[in-house]
Structures are given as C-alpha cells and as structure tokens.
Amino acid sequence: MEYYGTLGPACYEKNVLKQMIKAGMTGIRLNLSHKSLRESEEWIDNYLDAVQEEGVAGHLMIDLQGPELRIESLPAEMILEPGRKVTFGDGQIPMSEKMMPKMETGQQILLDDGKIELKVLEKTREYQYDCQVICGGVLTSKKSAAFPGCQVQQPTLTDQDIENLSYVQKYQVTDVMLPFVRDKEDLRNLRNALHKAGCPNVRIFAKIENMEGVKHAEELIPYCDYLVIARGDLGNAVPLSNLPGIQYQLSEICRKYHRKFLVVTQMLNSMMEHPYPTRAEVNDIFQAVMQGASAVMLTGETAAGKYPVEAMEMLVNTGEAAGKYRKEN
Predict the structure, then answer these.
(1) Structural domain contains residue 104
(2) At 222, is the secondary structure helix, strand, or coil?
(3) 73 in a domain, yes or no?
(4) CB count, 10 Å around CB of 98?
(5) Is the CB of residue 24 less than 8 Å from the CB of residue 313?
(6) 177 forms bridges with which residues in the sheet?
(7) 230 three-class SS
(8) 105 and 234 assigned to the same domain
(9) pLDDT of 112
(10) In a domain, 194, yes or no
C-alpha cells in the first residue's frame, strides 16, 4: 500500500514531515492550483530532506491544474449567506471568460468542491450572471467551480502546467496527477509533455472527477499508472447517494485490468478539527482497501488540518489492518 499526504501550511515544516513519514506516509502531494513548483521550493526541500534523513524513498506527486475549472483571485474572503444575491463571472465572483460555459436561468453552480451552491437568476451581460446563494459558506480565491450539465471545452494542460512540468526533474517529482481526465487523449497529451520535459518515466495518475471520465474509464487504463477515484468533484457530478456505486464500478474496472487505483477525498475529514475520526471514516478507508485500492490519500487533513500527524497515523493503521484482513480472507 501507498499512503499519501498533501503538503500545506499545516505540515510543511521538516519535523512535522518526519513524523508523518515515521507514521507510515510513503508519498506527498503538492496541489499546483495554488502555488507553482518554483514557489513551493521551500516546502519541497523540507520534504526531500525529511525523506533523506528518515532513509526512505518517498514519492513526490504534483497535482496539475489541468482542465479543472476555478474562480479567479478575490480581494478578500467572501462570506456568502443563503439568500444573498451575487454577480458571477465578470463580477463579485470573478472567473475567466475562457473557462465559463453559457448558462441559462436556474443553472446550478457549485464552488469549493460543492460546499457552496449558487443558482443563476438571469444573465445581465456577456459573461456576467446574477445568482442567488442557495448553500452558503466562506469563499476564498482559486476555489473549484462546477456547472452540472454544462460542457466546457478546455485544453488538457494550461500554460502553468507546461511550465511546472519543465521543473519536474529539478525537484525530483516522481508522480504527476492530471485532474478531470476526460478521455485517453488527455493522458496521451500529458505523456507527450513529460517526454518533451525529459522525464518519460514519471508515473501518471489519472484523476476521475466527472461522468465523462467514468464513461471512458476502461480506455484510460493503458495510458496511466494509477486511476484516481477523486470523490470531491465526482460527488458534485452525481447525487451523493450514487457515489459509492461509482467508486465500486471504477474499482471493478481496475481489478479487471489489473490496474492500480488510489482513493481520495474526505477520508478523515473530521480530523481537520478533531484528533480522532468518526467510525464511518475508518470504515470508508477499510472498504476502499477491501475493494482493491493500492493507495489512499489525505488532502486537507494534512495540508490545513490541526492534526496532520495523527491523521496520517490513522490512515496508515486502518489501511494496514484492511490489507491484512484482505490477505487473510
């Protein structure tokens, strides 16, 4: 089994990273939607030093921007109360024209992995929509945006992605995760870009986050090293009650073709605030391993949570217990 954490303000210091490695962490993810590889050099150096001092071969994964949709920078955090009216696009919540779909009245907009929900009231001008807050929260810069039912055509890699790939060798990156994979062409484009960057042997993790990716899952298998069942945005694309079935469906495909897969998102979400998980979260990790997962990952739990070391220890202990049970049965 492989156990990944995510680099962030809560765990970038070397002593914390060393404790996470001692707890069983085998690799760490860096989300490049917020900072570039070069801007993350201090964090990366701390991780590479921690790996060396602990005498382990830790993986360094970068999670590209890819064809993911995100809002632009905000001047300050926004508190969005239910019922409030806001302008989206060319307005209070800004988004690049290149990334926005054409929307009709009633269109649902999901922000920050679905935590915040808006409904389009009317189009006021090109690329500007008046919206009502349905489910509120605190919105900060560069959060994800989803438009259920809308098609948005985007290239596989952004300019920032291509620049980051040029530094893969320098920063000893071992894994590249591509978000919102739609079909095999996305993975071919990434592999070609890695060849051009002089790093053809870097492992590719194909992140399934929408129904287009689910539909093409079987054709993705030959073009990736891992399939990633990313339940955040995938849970925005379907009713949450359907999400466990889709996870099981994808795990069956991976087992059929002997392809490794990773499960991620809210595995220990309660440990963002508490030093212990819920029973349901522990069961979730156990079931992912029993379904055949070769890797599990923490995101906000280590990047921004209060208990990054304890969360990693719980992830590893539960994964190891599940792996032992799977082997014995």
Answers:
(1) yes
(2) helix
(3) no
(4) 10
(5) yes
(6) 63, 205
(7) strand
(8) no
(9) 87
(10) yes
**Parent domain of 140:** 78-146
In 3D space, the residue among 307, 306, 325 whose CA is nearest the CA of residue 317 turns out to be 325
Q: Is the pTM of this model over 0.85?
A: no
Task: Clarify whether residues 40 and 91 are in a common domain.
Answer: no
Distance of alpha carbon 192 from alpha carbon 198, whole angstroms: 10
CATH number at residue 96: 2.40.33.10
Query: How many other β-carbons are positioned within 10 Å of the β-carbon of residue 99?
Result: 17
- Residues listed for the chain: 329
176 and 141 housed in the same domain: no
- Structure token pair of residue 34: 């917020």
pLDDT < 70 stretches in the chain? 67, 153
- 104 and 197 inside one domain: no
Residue 193 contacts residue 176 (beta carbons within 8 Å): no
Q: In which residue are the tokens 């590889």 written?
A: 37
The residues with which 229 forms a beta bridge, in sequence order, are 208, 263
Among 146, 178, 205, the domain boundary falls at 146
Torsion of CA 197, 302, 113, 229, to 10 degrees: 60
Task: Say whether both 179 and 253 belong to one domain.
Answer: yes
Q: How many domains does the chain have?
A: 2
- In the block, tokens 């948005």 appear at 152
Query: Nearest-CA neighbor of 202 among 228, 221, 226?
Result: 226
Label residue 294 exposed, middle or buried (CB < 10 Å: 0-12, 13-18, 19+): middle
Cβ atoms of 20 and 310 within 8 Å: the answer is no
Q: What is the pLDDT of residues 93-128, one digit of tens each?
A: 999 887 788 899 999 999 987 889 999 999 998 889
